């Protein structure tokens, strides 16, 4: 593994006091959330870092911010003002915002290393971003010049196969354990909680915060605080439902609202039981949001990952499905399950296309019409069909003592 040993005195800086450890706590902070506060609080409790810099990201090519840069900075300042009581060296570094253009994390870290040679920089990473880390530009270069500090976020497991790819990393949980620290949610400043309750418009944007608010609910004692936290949880849950039922929109650089564009899925597989249809869609390691719609024999699945947005639309299913669909993210695939309205085994995913029936010309002799119909059936049928038609016709002619009959060699033969 690439983890450094927290018991190493040199690593703690006890042999070289001239080098200070600085944690770069970067993010879009659009908005800053209770999850960010909890992770910052844990980083402070380790006592490991001399400085912690909150680093709001600048212009991004992969997303459009809901909040302005000024608003994001203001939210960060409100948190720093509270956290400074626990760690005076917590500060905001607006380098990326001030730059006014896009910059990859590698170049930001490289710049800090050249400007502040007395610092040893560490790069903070939540486990929700771990899977997509290896798609970042210049990621190999970044991993070679810094140590990642990885914190587990609720609902996002840290997998060993991801850690094996990172040359230098520390787990925040290990820092807390090996340094004799424990994190208690009750350590959170009541002022921080009150401010978030007061300004919940800035913090209720992300439904992934629900588990964090539920943890706060467990430790809350005053009925009024519990009631307010419950209101926030219910509001977040409702917001999440509204997002799933409303087409997503983005604002372009001109401020014009446009629908989000999705890439159509061309490679997928399917499975079934008598009661369910299961679509299996390759999506990678991370799934942020899934929107599923079903209407009879039409299904539409929209998937938002941290890398791209995907859409799978299937029309003319074998039979109708219900709209009460569920999904699971397993082994880089999204398994979407639709209930069948009628329990049965499907021979194919799509309903078979009906062959157009030949229409006889008007005024044609019935005998000729019958002959043409028999000829079509004979030519389009398989070997068994041809034998059956030939035998039936032969027996019919024998009973009528009519030696005349169709020349099956003219039909194409057997």
Automatic annotation (TrEMBL):
Domain SGS span(s) in chain numbering: 335-414
Gene3D superfamilies with a match to the protein in the record: 2.60.40.790, HUPs
Pathway annotation from the record: Cofactor biosynthesis; NAD(+) biosynthesis
Name of the protein described by the UniProt record: Bifunctional SGS domain/Nicotinate-nicotinamide nucleotide adenylyltransferase/HSP20-like chaperone/Rossmann-like alpha-beta-alpha sandwich fold/Cytidyltransferase-like domain
GO biological process: NAD+ biosynthetic process
Keywords from the named record: ATP-binding, NAD, Nucleotide-binding, Nucleotidyltransferase, Pyridine nucleotide biosynthesis, Transferase
UniProt-listed InterPro entries: Cyt_trans-like, HSP20-like_chaperone, NadD/NMNAT, Rossmann-like_a/b/a_fold, SGS_dom
Stretches that traverse the bilayer: none
PANTHER family linked: NICOTINATE-NUCLEOTIDE ADENYLYLTRANSFERASE-RELATED (PTHR39321), PHOSPHOPANTETHEINE ADENYLYLTRANSFERASE (PTHR39321:SF3)
Pfam family, one: CTP_transf_like
Organism: Babesia duncani
UniProt feature, compositional bias: Basic and acidic residues: 354-365
Region (Disordered): 348-368
Single Gene Ontology MF annotation: adenylyltransferase activity
């Amino acid at each position: 593994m690439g983890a450094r040993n927290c018991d190493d005195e040199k690593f703690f800086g006890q042999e070289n006091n001239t080098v200070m450890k600085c944690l770069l706590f970067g993010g879009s902070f659009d908005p800053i959330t209770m999850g960010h506060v909890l992770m910052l609080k844990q980083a402070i409790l380790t006592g490991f870092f001399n400085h912690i810099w909150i680093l709001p990201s600048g212009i991004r090519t992969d997303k459009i911010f809901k909040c302005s840069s000024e608003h994001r900075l203001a939210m960060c300042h409100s948190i720093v003002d509270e956290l400074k009581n626990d760690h005076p060296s917590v500060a905001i570094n607006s380098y990326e915002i001030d730059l006014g253009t896009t910059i990859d994390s590698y170049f930001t870290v490289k710049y800090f290393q050249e400007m502040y040679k007395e610092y040893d920089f560490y790069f903070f990473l939540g486990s929700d971003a771990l899977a997509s880390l290896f798609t970042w530009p210049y990621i190999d270069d970044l991993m070679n010049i810094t140590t990642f500090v990885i914190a587990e976020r609720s609902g996002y497991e840290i997998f060993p196969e991801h850690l094996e790819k990172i040359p230098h990393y520390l787990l925040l949980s290990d820092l807390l354990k090996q340094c004799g620290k424990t994190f208690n949610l009750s350590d959170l400043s009541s002022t921080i909680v009150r401010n978030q309750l007061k300004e919940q418009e800035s913090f209720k944007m992300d439904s992934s915060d629900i588990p964090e608010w539920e943890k706060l609910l467990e430790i809350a004692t005053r009925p009024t605080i519990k009631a307010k936290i419950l209101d926030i949880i219910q509001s977040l849950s409702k917001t999440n439902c509204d997002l799933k039922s409303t087409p997503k929109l983005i604002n372009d650089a001109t401020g014009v609202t446009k629908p989000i564009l999705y890439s159509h899925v061309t490679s997928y597989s399917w499975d079934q039981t008598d009661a369910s249809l299961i679509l299996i869609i390759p999506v990678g390691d991370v799934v942020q949001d899934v929107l599923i719609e079903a209407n009879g024999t039409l299904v539409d699945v929209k998937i938002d990952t941290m890398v791209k947005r995907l859409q799978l639309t299937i029309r003319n299913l074998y039979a109708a499905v219900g709209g009460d669909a569920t999904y699971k993210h397993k082994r880089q695939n999204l398994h979407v399950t639709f209930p069948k309205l009628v329990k049965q085994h499907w021979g194919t995913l799509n309903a078979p296309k009906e062959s157009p029936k030949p229409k006889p010309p008007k005024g044609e002799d019935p005998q000729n019409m019958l002959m043409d119909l028999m000829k079509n059936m004979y030519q389009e049928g398989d070997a068994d069909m041809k034998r059956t038609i030939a035998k039936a016709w032969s027996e019919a002619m024998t009973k009528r003592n009519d030696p005349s009959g169709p020349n099956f060699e003219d039909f194409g033969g057997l």
